[in-house]
Design goal:
mainly alpha
Length: 255
Amino acid sequence: MLSVVVEAVLLGLQADRPKTIKSAIMGEIVIRFMAGIVLKTRLFFKGFYGLNALLLVTLAFFTFLMARITVAYLPYNTDVGFLRIKQDYIDIDHWRLAFFVHVYASVWVLLAGFTQFSENIRDFYPRLHRAFGYVYVTDVLLITGPAGLLMGFYANGGLTSKVAFVTLAILWMTCTAIAFVKAKNGDFVAHRNWMIRSYALTLSAIMLRAWKYAITNTVELPPMDVYRTVAWLGWVPNIILAEFLIRRRYLQKRR
């Protein structure tokens, strides 16, 4: 029933004006809104230098790129980008709904998650820290995560890719749920560690595309082999790095 209502609203929007004009207008609105958010985050990240500043700029850049990718699908375009190779699934109602939910909600996870590691926000704006935290947890556990899990069962590349994306979705939601529970229980050290793991998996959306760009521009492989490879490279190195950072922080505190 929900998918029927969503489709009716979206199709109604398409009938109001030509697709190209409508996409251009909505795309401009989204990009301006995202740019405004990125610029305003400077107020909450004063005092960030060196690596932290570099990470902020890098995240802002890739978030902007993700927003541009999202714009191509606005408001409900089914013949652009990734969907051009998923035409066999586009008529499956639950897959189509999951795809658009995943695309539209993923950018907000990137932004909300990054704020959780700002000591300035946590110390001076605790309510904002909690608000962004609830946005992140709600998005991962109830919106983007379930949508990504459903899409994983339909991934290109056969069983190899399907296992990669389904495992990613399950780990992502699990780490996020544990982080939320630890915060509720007042165990903020464990909460931070599980948030590091969760956000490392969130960044798979960025790293998958980065690895794909690197591989296709350095070696010649069949497109589907590249996809099977980046399905794992997009998140496995991330979680390994997260464990390294958690372990290093633990050892530093013991000294």
